[in-house]
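User: Sequence in, structure out. Go.
Assistant: Echoing your sequence, followed by the structure tokens.
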Amino acid sequence: MHAPKPPPVRLPAPACESLGVARVPLRRVHRAAAAEVVSLELWAGAHLPMIDKETLTRLAERAQRFTPRVSLAPPDGLLLEVRGSLHLFAGVAGLRAALTQDCLHLKIQPLIAFAPTPSAALAAARAGKPLEVLHASQLTGQLASLPLTALRWPQDVLERLKRMGVRTIGAVLRLPRAGFARRFGATQLAMLDALTGRTPEVRAAHRPRVRFRRRRDLDYELQNHALLLTALTPLFTQLGAFLKARQCAVVELECRLIHRQAPVSCCVLRLASPFADAQRLRELLGAQLDALRLPEPVRACELRAAALVAYVPDSATLWQAGEHGGGSVRETHGFIEHLRARLGPEAVHGLALLSEHRPESAWAVTGPPAAARQHQAPEPGEVPAPRRPLWLLQTPRPLSVRDGLPRRRGPLRLVSEPERIETGWWDDGEIARDYYTALDIHGVRLWVFRERAAPHGWYLHGVFG
């Protein structure tokens, strides 16, 4: 006799069922999420026959004016996610015409298709079908008639499917999924899922180069500076287009002149502020080239810009130049750049503040003056920095003393409370001083200090403007 089977154990229903909510399989939730992502995207796929790698990269950089989501599909494909850009280009027709115009500018005849998934758009373009599938619900039906060769599967897979009578995408989609994966591999099944939007497809966005480097080989050797600047003009035109496409500017530009036997001659243009005007850059470099001595004629020239910064156009001031203190920051920077180009980089420099309490060590000479910064209000609770003179003597000058008070062409009147600076004991540069603001008999405002150590001498350290 067999023992009776125990009654089945009934587990308590999940909380969702106790509330009257039906359970949904996790796989179905994933499919619904993928379908929602697909419905929010629209991809433009461009098939570009006989295109080389360099031209494909250039086209991808030009295409970033339509959308930041541009992806390469080498060797002859380009993908753009354009759902958010349609209203800017008069819909699909306008965007197709604009993208076609960019391709024709590079002497490439494109085949363009639109679909909710990147694989579908590219497959339709490669099949020569200019589809415009705007909704995910229409995707499978529109792809059914396309040949399998548009998927670029391995040739042995296509031959085996062909012997089975499967020649179109619609026919392969009707095959049992489990059997198809066993016979042809999970890779092809995953490609079909991405093609139809069953699973989301992630495409790496194309990132343009962040450095500019262009070279031009001359037809004949040149030594005249004016002719060299003319030979550099096409490179400056390319630099202007490069900066405009990336909304960037340069703060340093290097021109390299290649000779036949002598070492390369370098001319480095350092700017006072970020600049993106190629014509102005050409003028500044030309002024600097005039002072460059060439050891022998030039056979090639090259422009390099390694450091690019974000370009923020200057906003106009409220007041006109000279009115209520108004002025043009652009004119100031242009004047500085012109001086550096004419007189050399070492003739004009800037000053930088250092984190140091000793006045004579609180500044340093820097490179080109940086763009003027707006004055920032101190944070709440922050003690404002004490006022400092614009002119600081390189070495403090001793002052005469009468009745314990300093004198300079007469008695000085102290008009401020003392500011004590006592520091530097760790590096053999110790100071201990009490600083005052003083007025002389002519009303000149001075910055003086009294040594705290004996003999308590008085010194002049700066003059206020």
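User: And one key feature?
Assistant: Residues 314 and 330 are 7 Å apart (CA to CA).
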